[in-house]
């Protein structure tokens, strides 16, 4: 494994753009945060969001989802397989779900709100910084501290450089794995490594679900003034489907998702939603 393949945090950053988030903080945007936190005062919630966003941008790498406060949105429930997943997790207490790239943990909290037990959930990301800020945002340390978390690189085939799947006992361990807007931050090789590791960690008939940015034509993400020097790779609908099938996934579906009111990173980006099963 060469160092050029290992993800560097600096490659995930955009230059900080001055964005007036006030107009973005609508009552609808705050709906999940309010329901989860049970805080009635929207002004209190707005200040909390602004403060957490500011701290994240000052201390961590700048993602577009943080610039545009998209971290307040839940993604799990937007997937067509979510009812199936929730039913399985609630009726079979031995079933488990892993979220990769959990960021602030909004979707983990969606699972908790919908009745999934904390001991069925594992959350993972490259670093713990965003997760810790999520505790400030949702003010629920005692609740989420019961969830197992693992920090490290999941996009490498070298256990010494990232998450050690063997050590974590993750081989054939999860009924469901999810990653929301993660695949497009990788190079082509990193993406393949990541998906191979997902395949290893799923049980037989386990399901991988997610969303990501795609392009009409696959290729390296062209570097503009707001991107870093590290090359990322954008798959197309067909190339992502082919990659998943080539790794061994069955029942692969990659489709375009509705993209209403979502800021585009480039005019050529499209949003994909996907699912695939591991069948031995």
TrEMBL record:
Keywords: Methyltransferase, S-adenosyl-L-methionine, Transferase. Pathway: Secondary metabolite biosynthesis. The keyword DNA-binding does not apply. The keyword Ligase does not apply. Gene3D superfamilies: Vaccinia Virus protein VP39. One of its GO terms (biological process) is methylation. Residues 97-206 form the Methyltransferase domain. One of its GO terms (molecular function) is methyltransferase activity. Belongs to the class I-like SAM-binding methyltransferase superfamily. This is mRNA cap guanine-N7 methyltransferase.
């Amino acid at each position: 494994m060469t160092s050029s393949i290992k993800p560097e945090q600096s490659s995930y950053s955009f230059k900080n753009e001055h964005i007036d988030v006030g107009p973005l903080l609508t009552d609808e945007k705050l709906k999940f945060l309010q329901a989860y936190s049970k805080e009635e005062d929207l002004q209190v919630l707005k200040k909390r969001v602004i403060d957490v966003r500011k701290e994240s941008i000052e201390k961590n790498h700048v993602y577009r989802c943080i610039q545009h406060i998209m971290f307040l949105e839940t993604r799990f429930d937007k997937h067509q397989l979510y009812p199936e997943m929730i039913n399985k997790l609630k009726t079979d207490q031995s079933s488990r779900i892993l979220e990769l790239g959990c960021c602030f943990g909004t979707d983990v909290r969606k699972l908790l709100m919908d009745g999934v037990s904390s001991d069925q959930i594992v959350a993972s990301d490259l670093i713990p910084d965003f997760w810790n800020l999520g505790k400030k945002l949702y003010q629920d340390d005692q609740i989420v501290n019961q969830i197992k978390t693992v920090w490290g690189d999941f996009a490498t085939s070298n256990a010494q450089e990232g998450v050690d799947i063997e050590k974590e006992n993750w081989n054939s361990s999860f009924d469901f794995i999810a990653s929301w807007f993660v695949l497009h931050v990788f190079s082509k090789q990193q993406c393949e490594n990541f998906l191979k590791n997902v395949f290893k960690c799923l049980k037989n008939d386990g399901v991988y679900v997610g969303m990501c940015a795609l392009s009409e034509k696959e290729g390296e993400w062209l570097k503009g003034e707001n991107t870093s020097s590290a090359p990322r790779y954008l798959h197309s609908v067909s190339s992502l489907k082919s990659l998943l099938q080539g790794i061994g996934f069955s029942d692969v579906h990659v489709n375009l998702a509705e993209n209403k009111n979502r800021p585009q990173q480039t005019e050529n980006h499209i949003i994909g939603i996907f699912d695939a099963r591991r069948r031995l």
